[in-house]
Amino acid sequence: MAVARHASALRDVVPAETARAIGARLYQDLHDDIISGRRRPGEDLSETRVAEQYGVSRTPVREVFHRLVEEGFLRVVPQVGTYVAPINLAAVRDSQYIREALECRAIRITAAKAKAPAIRALRQELRVQERAVAIGDRARFFASDERMHQTLLTAAGHPQVWDTIAAAKAQLDRVRYLSLEAGDWLAMIFEQHRVLIDRIADHDAAGAERAMQAHLRTVFAAADRIAAEHADFFEGARAKPRRRRA
Amino acid sequence: MAVARHASALRDVVPAETARAIGARLYQDLHDDIISGRRRPGEDLSETRVAEQYGVSRTPVREVFHRLVEEGFLRVVPQVGTYVAPINLAAVRDSQYIREALECRAIRITAAKAKAPAIRALRQELRVQERAVAIGDRARFFASDERMHQTLLTAAGHPQVWDTIAAAKAQLDRVRYLSLEAGDWLAMIFEQHRVLIDRIADHDAAGAERAMQAHLRTVFAAADRIAAEHADFFEGARAKPRRRRA
DNA sequence: CCCTGTGTACTAGTATACAAGAAGAGGCGG
DNA sequence: CCGCCTCTTCTTGTATACTAGTACACAGGG
């Protein structure tokens, strides 16, 4: 599923040797495990244990851990241990805010200026999603979902901003994975996507923005309910990330 | 150089306490050096050299480098060297987009619901800025500037989102530092700030948002001109910005 | 029984050693 | 004089050794 593909773009200049792939794969695995809930909040990881499991030394593991800490997925207590961070509802709301702000503005721009090729590309994704809904292929649907949202950013002229959104989305996905989305969930999201594209095709900027906000909040709506159901996965107090400067 | 002397001196006095601060201080120094242009794009850093300058081993230096790479400030070429990344104009534009989207939405929310205490706090910062303008204290002004923008996010209910904005802002600041902002620059920004707060006090959400966008674009406006003047510091090719957690 | 001190077994933080590869200087042959 | 080859020396990547500090069990005294 949908996982941020950030970083490593620069390093592609260098032949992708297996050494590099170790860290990348390790990051991917841990990231997915945490997002998906396979590693539960509070679970303790040990640099040594993980290093042994992957057959590498602690050094690359540390670098991956460090990155996951910065993204808010791990929590390191010096001389004590490393733990999967609890889901912070405030952080989830922040992520929702970020996503709304960035995507709503993007769709407004896109609706105003989108040309036929971009709209065709979006409708193409819609067809992929329609098929995915028909056969109930969730993975395919969400992959297309991600591509479509990314395409909107590209059409708005800021393809790289998707990286920021993806990072924010990860916090939301952590919550989403806790819910067993009902069978008609895909159909509902698909319908919303259809409306989004129609608004863009009509160059209805304001309407597109409203539709996008409603769409994004549909996903977000489940958060509070889920937090109540899985209270032990959440924390009220906010984690203390390292501040930059005042 | 001065930095090294300072660091080693501290280390000798209170080694235990500064032990954990080594990385933080190192990050701070390098970050500021790059943002401010004291370390110029293309300049090569060596893990070994930096480690020696700070009197530490390569391990903590590597972690700091890694973080700066993810934020787009450094570029590591394996087996070759580490360099200060050139300023990427596309990344700068993305940062501007992110900042506008997040701050404009925030001020709209703030204008709609800001209570008297929040407005008082904002006016307080205004007074600080007024004094700073009067005596030409740029450092004090920009510190207050930063606090004020952060306060707006807090008033909007998303204080931590400032972290994301700060990360985006860093890309813009890199450009700003290249310009020798004229003497009346501070006065102009101050005046814009005054308008922002007035709009909030009037609960004029739309007006506040427009004013904020104009304000942010004032700073951004210089970017293209500066890029032309310092072409050797910039690159056309893409790079990736990355974001810290929300 | 409870409380306290101590030892042990973990942890992450740091330093150091080693490996692999790229770049450049310099000698040698043409 | 030019081009090529080699060797030295740098770089980062990885692994390992060591430091310091925490948590916890457990024995022993009150």
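qc> Residues 16, 19, 44, 46-48, 58, 62, 76-82 of chain B lie near DNA strand D (CB under 10 Å from a C1').
qc> done
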